[in-house]
């Protein structure tokens, strides 16, 4: 679907590289039809040498690309929009992976340009990403198809309403760090009960990989899988009991809520009101 289109990446960081790698190595398009505008010359040179793409200025990118991927930090989006103003039209497509930035921010500058907002995550770097796409006011199913084709080279893609994307950011966007934090804590805990760090890390990583594969492939949900391995009075029950007694579920809810609220703030919105507690 991407053949015949030129794709320009504004920003050449890790997420941009994951997408570039996916579309180039997956054969989705000719590398010479992929451009990157990256302010650090050494980084731009690396991307050109590694993937065979073209480096250019932001103005040159706007002229050459039919699909413009905004892959910069949310704090610099307005600066980028100022430089691109007047250079993109109704026949172009903006795909934004800038966390927390709503499509309305782009549409205020490019009134007729279709915009698709994307929330990817870092496992895209190893082709195990989870990306969610949402259409702006001018984006059609056809435009969503282009965004899906780009993101599908790095993992799974789900389409949702844009109103859900701050919550998505707090779950799958930020989620890998939650799992890394849990792995870090488990390794520390393993050391505290007598294992050396190398052995502990091996145990934790493979356990995480195996558990994730079971969640994906077994046809059972997390509750069923947990109950399957939690025998009454057993070791798993003892460990899970500590988590329940110390309010782990409430901590996870607070964690996700804080990340969701920060995503809203980065997008220039007001902090959402707290949801009422679920009745018990």
UniProtKB/TrEMBL annotation:
GO MF annotation terms: pyrroline-5-carboxylate reductase activity
Binding, NADP(+): 71-74
Lineage, broadest ranks: Bacteria, Bacillati, Actinomycetota, Actinomycetes, Sporichthyales
Name of this protein: Pyrroline-5-carboxylate reductase
Species, as recorded: Epidermidibacterium keratini
Occurrences of domain Pyrroline-5-carboxylate reductase catalytic N-terminal (ranges): 6-100
Record's function text: Catalyzes the reduction of 1-pyrroline-5-carboxylate (PCA) to L-proline.
All residue ranges annotated as the Pyrroline-5-carboxylate reductase dimerisation domain in the record: 162-266
One annotated Gene Ontology cellular component of this protein: cytoplasm
Main location (coarse class): cytoplasm
Subcellular location: Cytoplasm
């Amino acid at each position: 679907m991407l053949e015949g289109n030129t794709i320009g990446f504004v920003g050449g960081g890790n997420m941009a590289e994951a997408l570039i790698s996916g579309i180039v190595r997956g054969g989705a398009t000719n590398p010479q039809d992929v451009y990157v505008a990256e302010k650090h010359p050494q980084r731009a040179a690396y991307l050109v040498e590694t993937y065979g793409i073209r480096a250019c200025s932001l103005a040159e990118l706007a002229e050459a690309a039919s699909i413009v991927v905004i892959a910069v930090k949310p704090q610099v989006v307005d600066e980028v929009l100022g430089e691109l103003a007047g250079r993109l039209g109704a026949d172009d497509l903006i795909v934004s992976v800038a966390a927390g930035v709503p499509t309305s921010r782009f549409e205020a500058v490019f009134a007729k340009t279709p915009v698709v907002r994307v929330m990817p995550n870092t496992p895209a770097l190893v082709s195990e990403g989870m990306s969610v796409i949402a259409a702006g006011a001018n984006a059609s199913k056809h435009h969503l198809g282009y965004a899906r084709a780009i993101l599908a080279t790095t993992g799974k893609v789900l389409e949702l309403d844009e109103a859900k994307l701050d919550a998505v950011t707090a779950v799958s966007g930020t989620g890998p760090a939650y799992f890394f934090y849990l792995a870090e804590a488990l390794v520390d805990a393993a050391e505290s009960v007598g294992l050396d760090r190398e052995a502990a890390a091996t145990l934790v990583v493979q356990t995480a990989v195996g558990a994730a594969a079971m969640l994906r492939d077994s046809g059972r949900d997390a509750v069923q899988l947990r109950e399957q391995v939690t025998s009454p009075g057993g070791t798993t029950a003892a460990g899970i009991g500590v988590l329940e007694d110390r309010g782990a579920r409430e901590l996870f809810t607070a964690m996700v809520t804080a990340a969701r609220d920060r995503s809203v703030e980065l997008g220039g919105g007001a902090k959402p009101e707290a949801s009422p507690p679920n009745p018990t």
